[in-house]
Request: fold
Amino acid sequence: MTLRVGVVGAGSMAEAHVPAWRALGADVTVHSLRPPTGFASRHGVAVADSLATLVASSDVVDVCSPTSTHEEVVLNAIAGGRDVVCEKPLARTSRAAQSLVDHAAAAGVMLFPAHVVRYFPAYRDLEQRVRAGEVGAVRSLDLSRQVASPREGWFHDRARSGGVVLDLMVHDLDQALWLLGPVRTVSAQRLDVDGEWVRARLGHAGGGTSTVEARWGPPEPGFATSAVVRGGAGTLQHSATDVPAGVDDPYLLELRDVVDHLRTGSGTRVSAEDGVAAVALAERVLRALSD
Reply:
């Protein structure tokens, strides 16, 4: 039976998710506060005139709308008994994120936080090699990520978006938790006057430290990311300014994981609890910046 997916939002994240859903054979409908007629025509998908209509006609609701709307949209989807994919961050606060997890569990539906970096082949390779003990006990982890500063105004309203920490750094905060586990200590500093370039230092409960840097920068060079893992037996590293040609689309890999889970009950690489943990750690970084 064809999976019916309702996508909320028609911005950059929907542009990444919809082609992946289509490649997986899903029947896609989109809803956005701004009529998404151009988006729908470009991707060959249907349009729902309201969130209620979208939820009622979907098996899975995929939330690609601004961060400040996540809580309301996810709750509506859960109330309709729908499985949910939600773009990171899961919610604006960890309290709200935990509430969503609790509601989903009570309703018996899936809540999947879309931390796509776990599906980038290079980061998956790093994780597997660390787990295999290739570098021995990890002593330090250096992670950095830069993208062009967003043009949409809501990103720069920190009350709505959480700024660069909750929107961009959260990717690598999740990586730090994935690779080195719970965090005991957090310190952070702004590296520019606008607070759009931030560095955080994390002390992990199991040993080792992570330095995580995120920047909304100029249009050029645009996207750039790096990871360096140092351990007692060696070093692993990765850097990129784009997804290498010939590599499977990480969004496709991510949503295929979701489809496999729905069809077979297999586990997913990211759990709802992982989504809460990433938001909670981002909040700690934000508090450290305010100290």
In short: Residues 208 and 289 are 22 Å apart (CA to CA). The first strand starts at residue 4 and ends at 8.
